[in-house]
User: What shape does this take?
Amino acid sequence: MPARRDGIDLGLDLGGIADAGLAQVEIDDLSDCWSLHWRDFLSMLVSCRRAPEDDIHLPEPHSLRPHLSDGILHCVTHAYGGTGLRAGYRDHFYAADTDPEMKAALYHGLFAIHRRERGRHGGPDMIMYELTALGRNVARGEAETYPRFG
Assistant: This one.
């Protein structure tokens, strides 16, 4: 959150502080090494205001979400990299071709088949599914925090 006075950016990045009181505490912490004279000057000069146009919002849950089972949502968020800080770092899911939840996710258009592989030693054939744009949007709506990646 940039600190502004009368619409002018003062060049202080207050990093996501939610209200002006906390921002003023942060400015006071930054100015502890300055003399009392500078602190008084800074408190008169700077008034911190929230800049709502700079807010970052997590997306709302996708409208398709109520129609999806927990198993499908698990597959979509797992393919996306989870719901935490690593969300968005990947875009694929590897599963057996007999997996009913992946077939349902494919039916809903959340995944596309990237490649098929023959099962080893009598095991089931495997499919690498890749998230579609719709699948990524559904997964973003499940994020619990801001991701560090893309």
